[in-house]
Specification:
Blueprint lengths: L1 E10 L2 E11 L3 E6 L6 H8 L7 E6 L2 E2 L4 H5 L2 E4 L11 H10 L5 H14 L15 H12 L6 E5 L7 H16 L3 E5 L3 H7 L2 E6 L2 E7 H10 L5 H8 L5
Parallel strand pairs: 3-8, 3-9, 6-7, 7-8
Antiparallel strand pairs: 1-2, 1-4, 4-5, 9-10
Helix pairs in contact: 3-4, 4-5
Length: about 240
Amino acid sequence: MISIKNVSKSFGSVKALDDVSFDVRNGEVVGYVGLNGAGKTTTIRIAVGVLPPDDGDVEIDGFSIVRDKRRASERIGWIPEIPLFERDFKALDYFIYVAGFHGIRGDEARRLGRELLEKVGLGDAMNKKLGHYSQGMRKRFALALSLINDPPNFLFDEVLNGLDPQGIAFFRELALEFKKNGKAVLFSSHILTEVENIADRVVFIHKGRIIADKTIEEIKREASSGGHGSLEEYFFKLIGVKI
């Protein structure tokens, strides 16, 4: 379970997050929706422990990312918006290197690397250098890395960016697999049709503040009664933008 509790963050005079709170329960897939600059990436970076909050905290299965970062981080799989890797490494070699930080080494790391790279659709590219990977391939590789220790919680920042239709369909199936296995999944995306297809619930953020937290069923009901049939139309109505 991911619990974001009264988190605030400023960069100079700009308040990126203002008292942000919401939960992602076990066995739930939550979409995180907002315009560019609304605070989605900042929220996720704080939740995974790479950026400290000014106020508030995030608990991962009850462990504070502020006070017990190591134990909280062990329970997170994370894909950043723009994954960056050493370009001269071959994918499988880099996977084995990272697996070592999780205590998995040697033949076991190589076996797991082959298995997970196959799982994310990189079986034919595991011996290519990461510098030759496309953006979509880097997203798939980052996903493989996030699966190394089979964590119970996942945070994905614009994970669908750069993926082709096959890659988007793969992520949709994977999210459903995570849900079935009781994992908590938070993912941000501007592809609102896919958020609608994947998420159980949607948290809307605008100018650093949470403006709505609704199940897909609630959104569909409210959208249809208000003449705003799609998630995109519903979102723009929330923030007062005519489309």
